[in-house]
Structures are given as structure tokens and as C-alpha cells.
Design goal:
The structure is a homodimer. Chain A is α/β, with parallel strands linked by helices and about 425 residues long. Chain A has helices at about 10-25, 40-45, 80-90, 105-115, 140-150, 165-175, 200-205, 240-245, 275-285, 295-305, 305-335, 360-370, 400-429; strands spanning about 35, 95-100, 130-135, 155-160, 165, 180-185, 215-220, 250-255, 270, 340-345, 350-355, 375, 390-395. In chain A, strands 2-9-8-7-6-3-4-5 form an eight-stranded mixed β-sheet, with helices on both faces. In chain A, strands 10-11-13 form a three-stranded antiparallel β-sheet, covered by helices on one side.
Chain lengths: ~425, ~425
């Protein structure tokens, strides 16, 4: 196959006619497929069913500290849950607070608290004329939705192979006091699956923010979500790195078991310096009497410790890996030669990021929809839903069955080809 | 026994000496008793242990709508949980949203959202110079803590036997546009156990607020928390009442199963008009992907329906009733004649409210502490922790065992007597 850019108008038109026929056949099947969200599949959820058996009417429901987990109280979470999630996210157990079922909720509350009450005694953001966040792109739409909701100006920072463009990050953070935060998914990033290099993390820790209330929002959502046993990315632990550089308060770290146990009924946590946690507790004690300790206990009794959790993640990987490879193989086989898109082979996480020819992403997603395939909306990986070159598409291969995935990848590739063909035909005419 | 106010100095001094001896004996036992918080006892929590058995590894975990409760999603809660909690709080199932484990958290978020984004399109409170809340007193300290946290000015409204002083409420709400809310615990109120009369509720519904974004914060925390089968209070349903009066949007209603199932692992909910719920969802969908649906399912499978819940509350009553009566009997027997305090016999809820002689509450709580009895801090039932006449004390009889309670009531009564005696002796000298 020769690249589309080298085809004559005749060749392009011929190819299009042949693919349109194929597309029409698929469309006629009235399929309903979904590669839009990073949702674990039923098979993955089945892995944690044992968690529903570890507590029953005969169980000892006291925490290791002797607290009745059924009753009110314990703002920080029970000690054994702190230990489990601290190990999971590689921080000391006294630097983590266990929350409810959603790390997104913690992040929202963190921005909200900064907006209403400020960060560690600094001016509440609602009293400031300008508050800005840096947003490595492509990134996670729900992060961007939070900052947009609070009217925070978002600035795109291009992602490189080793993480965000740190020259640009340093330039903004170290000079502009209205820059109060940066959204990071530092390991197996959403959507590219990129892990920040050692040098990138060290440059983060060496930032000298113009604003004392600048914080790195380090959403370590995929910390132990490897796809392979032998090929794994490693990420330097940011809290320790910031401490070494004399700025222990510069980072908030978020994590959860949503994609480890159950997405709707997991346990989320936030790790930070003692001073940050003290600041956070001042709000928390007004907001709640404590989170669900029985669910914390359930997680500890099921996983036992970090080793149990790592073993459990191998089972997830065994289910996810073939799905990622199925999609990647179709992309490799069908698109490699055509020069109409590029993608990254991630070693973990939940997504494959696809960059189409500029100006084609929206049309590709619409085309796929025509054949019954739902994709994440084009643009969603950018602040305000605006991809400036309309190129990035997030592929979420986790939820469909392998059989559905094979057809879904086929539809996607066809859509990419057809939209790209239109582009070239238009250029030639 | 003659009232202290009628005693001579000699009689007072004699009585004091005799009681001091008694107090010293109890103090020497180095007791550690707690009547400070409305915490269910272990025996009450044991009632719901079956809830840990209703879901296991073999269970069908689909909601009635066919949704896998383990996975992400479902912002409003699963339909069967909506139905159960709607029945519990007497509203239509499509007017309720099911949240996480804490109604306090919902109330906090509601005030926070109004502060950052305003209510249904009105100016966010953070942009206003003055925001005021009415606070019926005595009331719930955690309510007052939320409004204090957001810098909202709190205005004391005296509680009468049939609810808040509605003349005063109408005067404020109907004339002052900076009055944005009122905290209410309308049934078995915290701490007095008062239920708002039909006329009080109707006057609430007939309010004509000067501020369009005024809301009644109707914390129906003890809606089905009766102590007796035969003597039960009835409260008119406020959402319907407001709707009838043409102001369906004027009220937010909160409830939870914290004191029905498990305080740390219950299910909380908010009911409101469709327009209010739509406004709330605009925030919720940014804040979370959904609350813990497995725990919702657990509650539905355990209680089955509102009848099951009502039956369950009878078992709670059987445990709580003797405790309330134990304390009330000690108060009746020991204090009735002395004219040094008054109290209300509640028919439900979690508290007994005691009004000491003006200027005595702090000293009584301190005295009780001396003998090892923790009480809710005097003043806690008032905004800013300031009881203007230092009189009200909240008694929480639910947590101690009946044996502990007998001693605790004894210590309390002794403390009331001793502090009151000092007062009269001082007056006589």
C-alpha cells in the first residue's frame, strides 16, 4: 500500500469507492459499540468479587486501632487502609488521607476549597482576578471540566515523549503568580500512556513557583496499572522528590482503587505534606464525620497488602493486554503505511491516543458513530473541548469484549481512512 | 425537697457539703463516660449486621435498570435506592438524588456550591457582601460549623414548643434579601426533640422570601426515628407543602440512613424540586462519576422496602427507649422539685435538651468532666458556640450502656445541683 499523500486523484477515488462499500456493509449491521470511556469490563470486575465475601455478619469489624468501623468517625481513614494505599502510591502512611469512592471528587473538593478558602492561608482564588492552570495536552477531560467549572483559565502545554514540555512549564510557573496549578497524569498518562521521565519529575520538583499557593495536581491514576510483566514504566515518587528540593508542600497526589477493585465502590486517597494535610483537615472536619470505613476494611481484608494488590493487577493486565494489542495490531496492519495517523504503544493505563491528520478528528468520530461506534468526543482531550488542530482521538479499549473490539477497531480504521481520503481528494481537486 | 431558691444559706451549705461528698466518691472511681455525641451503640449497629450478608460473590449485582452496580456511573443513584429513600422521606422517587455516606457532606457541598456558583443562576454568595442564615436555637453544632466556615452571618431564632419563632422567621426572610437560608431539624429536633407543628410547616411554605435564592435547609435527620410505637410525632411533608403554595424550589431536604443502618457506611440523600435537582446535577457531574451503588444495593436488599425499614426502626427504639427513660427518670426524680433546670421528654430522635439556670451550663459541663463524664460542650448548640445565657446542655444517651448511663445521669444531676447551689450560695452571701 502506498501512502495516501502519494496517490493520484484516480487512485484515491477508487480506494474510497471500495472502502465506502465495506463501510456500508458494516453500517447495515446496526451495531452498537462503545470505545468512549475508560471503563473496566465485567470480566475485570469479576476479579474482585471475593471482596463481597470478606465481611459478613460474623466478621470482626474493628480496625487495627480498635475502632468500630461501622460507627461514625476517623477522618483520615483506618490505619490499615492508609498503609495499603500509601504503599500503592509509594508514600508514608502518615501522609495519606483515605476518602470515599472517587478521586475525582477529592480533586474537585481540592480546587473548590482553594477557591473558597485559599491554600494554607493564601488568598482564596474567588477573591483573585486571574487564576490559571497549566494543562498538558492531550489530557483528561474531567480534570479540565473541574477547572473550567471554577472559571480558571487553562493553558495548553504540549506533551512530549517524556512528559509535558518542561521549558514551558518552568516559564509559566516560575514567572506568573496567577498560575496556581498544573494537572498531571504522570504514569501511563490519559490518553497517551506516557510516563514522565526521571528528568521531567526532577524538573517538576525543582520548580520555583512565583505563587506560594501553586500546587502540582499529581493524579497517579494508573500507578500500578501495567499491561506487561516484563515491560513496565517506572515513575519517580514526587512527594519525596519535592521534599528533597525543599518544597514539600508543592504537590497534591491523588489515587484510587477504582480500576483495581470496583469503579463505583473503590477507595480513593490523597497524599501530601503534613502541612497540606493539616490545611485540608480544617475543611474536612466541617464537611464530614468520616468516610466509609467498612469499605476501607473490605479492601484491606481482600487485598491483604500491596503484594496482593500487585498480584491482582496481573489478572487485570491479562484481560486488558489482548484488547490493547488487538486494537494496536489493526492500527499497525491497516494504517502503518498510509501516513494518515500516528499512535503510541502504551505499556499500561487505559487508553490509546491516536493523532489523525489535522482537521480530521471530529469527522472521524462522527463517521465512526454513523456505523454505531461511540468514541470519546474529538476535542475532549483538550481544555474547553477544543483541540486547536482537530487531530487527537482517545481510544478506550477496556470495556468491549474482544469480539466487539475487533469490529470496533475495523470501523475506526475505516473511518480514519475515509475521512483522510476525502481530505486528499479535496486537495487534489 | 424544697426548691433551692427557697432554701436558707444554711440549708444550701448543708446540701452542698452532702453532695460534695457524694461527688468525691464518684470521682474517686476514675470513670470514663461519654454522653457527648449522638452515636448509636454497638447493640444498635448489631441490628444491621445482616446487611453484610446480602451481597456476596454469587450475587446478581445489576440494578433494577440493568446497570452493573460495580462499575462507574448513575449520578442520581439506582432506582430502587431512590424509591427506598424517597419513601423514607416521603417524596416522589424522581425528586431525590442518592449520595455517599454522609448527609452532612451533602449540606456542606450545597452551601459550598451556592457560595461558588450561586443558586439557580443567582449571584454566587462569594460575590455578595452579606449572606445570612437563620439558626433556630438550640440547634445542631455541625450545621452552624458549615455556615461559620463560609463566613455566613448566623442569626439566632428562638425555638418554641412548636418549632422556630415563625414571626421572627417571616420578618427576616420576607424582608431581608441577604437572608439566604435557615437550618431546620424539623422532626425530633437536635437537641430538643421538638417536631414542628402543622401550622409551623405551613408558615414555612407560605414564606415570601425577599431573596429568590433563599432556601430552607430541611435536615430530616430523624424522620422515622421514633422512641415509641404509640406516641409518635407527625410532620407535614415540606416539599409538597411548598409546591402547593407555588414555591416548589424553596426547600432542600436532606436525609440519611446513618442512624438506621451504619453511621459510617450508610446512604445519604437530598430531595428537592426538579429545577433545583437540575441545578445541582450541573455541579455533580463535574464532581463525581457516581456514588457507591453497591452500598445502595446492599441497603435495598437488606431493608427490602420502607416497611422493612420501619420494622427495623422498632428494634432501634427498643434499645434507645430504656436509655432515654433512664436519664429522664433520674432528671424527674432528682431535679423536678428543685427549680434549677428544665427539660423536654422527646418522643424520638437522639437527644435530651436540658436548660440549666442562666450562667450555669459551662460550669455544669466542666463539673461533670471532673468526674469523668464527657458532655457536648456547653454553647455547642448555638452559632459560634455562644449560648447567650449559658444555659443549654445537650444530653446524648444513645452510646453508653444502660449501666454506664445510670452512673452518667447521676453525675450529671450531681453536677447540676452543685453548680446551682454555688449560684444560690453566692446570691445569699
Amino acid at each position: 500500500m502506498i501512502p495516501y499523500c502519494e496517490m493520484t486523484l484516480e487512485q484515491l477515488t477508487e480506494e474510497k469507492a471500495s472502502l465506502e462499500k465495506k463501510f456500508a456493509q458494516i453500517k447495515a449491521q446496526n451495531l452498537k459499540l462503545d470505545m468512549s470511556r475508560g471503563k473496566p469490563s465485567a470480566a475485570q470486575l469479576d476479579l474482585a468479587m471475593g471482596m463481597l465475601d470478606v465481611l459478613d455478619a460474623t466478621s470482626n469489624l474493628k480496625s487495627s486501632a480498635g475502632v468500630d468501623c461501622r460507627n461514625y468517625g476517623v477522618l483520615d481513614g483506618i490505619p490499615e487502609a492508609q498503609e495499603l494505599l500509601a504503599d500503592m502510591t509509594e508514600v508514608p502512611a502518615n501522609q495519606i488521607i483515605i476518602y470515599g469512592n472517587s478521586s475525582l471528587n477529592i480533586m474537585f473538593d481540592t480546587v473548590s476549597r482553594s477557591y473558597t478558602h485559599g491554600v494554607m492561608g493564601h488568598t482564596p482564588w474567588c477573591k483573585l482576578d486571574h487564576v490559571k492552570f497549566l494543562c498538558p495536552v492531550p489530557g483528561y477531560d474531567r480534570h479540565f471540566a473541574i477547572t473550567e467549572y471554577f472559571g480558571i483559565e487553562m493553558i495548553n502545554i504540549p506533551m512530549n515523549e517524556d512528559g509535558p514540555d518542561m521549558d514551558l512549564v518552568e516559564q509559566y510557573v516560575n514567572n506568573d503568580p496567577s498560575v496556581k496549578g498544573i494537572w498531571c497524569v504522570p504514569k501511563y498518562s490519559n490518553p497517551q500512556g506516557i510516563t514522565y521521565s526521571d528528568e521531567t519529575v526532577r524538573r517538576f520538583a525543582r520548580l520555583k513557583p512565583a505563587a506560594d499557593d501553586f500546587r502540582i495536581y499529581w493524579d497517579n491514576a494508573y500507578g500500578i496499572h501495567h499491561l506487561y510483566d516484563d515491560k513496565q514504566d517506572h515513575l519517580i515518587e514526587i512527594l519525596m522528590e519535592c521534599k528533597k528540593e525543599g518544597r514539600p508542600d508543592m504537590v497534591y497526589k491523588f489515587c484510587s482503587t477504582s480500576k483495581i477493585s470496583f469503579p463505583g465502590s473503590g477507595v480513593a486517597a490523597m497524599a501530601a505534606s503534613p502541612a497540606n494535610l493539616e490545611d485540608i483537615r480544617r475543611q474536612m472536619k466541617i464537611q464530614t464525620i468520616g468516610h466509609d470505613k467498612l469499605n476501607q476494611l473490605r479492601h484491606v481484608r481482600f487485598f491483604k497488602d500491596i503484594h496482593g494488590m500487585v498480584e491482582h493487577m496481573r489478572k487485570h493486565a491479562d484481560i486488558l493486554r489482548p484488547k490493547f494489542e488487538a486494537v494496536l495490531n489493526v492500527l499497525d496492519n491497516e494504517l502503518s503505511d498510509l501516513q494518515i495517523g500516528s499512535w503510541i504503544r502504551p505499556r499500561g493505563g487505559y487508553f490509546i491516543s491516536f493523532d489523525a491528520l489535522p482537521g480530521c478528528a471530529k469527522a472521524i468520530v462522527a463517521k465512526a458513530k454513523e456505523a454505531g461506534l461511540s468514541m470519546t468526543g474529538a476535542g475532549a482531550t483538550y481544555p474547553y473541548g477544543k483541540d486547536p488542530i482537530d487531530s487527537n482521538i482517545r481510544i478506550a479499549p477496556s470495556f468491549p469484549t474482544p469480539e466487539e473490539l475487533a469490529i470496533a477497531a475495523e470501523i475506526f480504521v475505516l473511518s480514519v481512512k475515509l475521512v483522510s481520503l476525502d481530505k486528499f481528494i479535496e486537495l487534489r481537486q
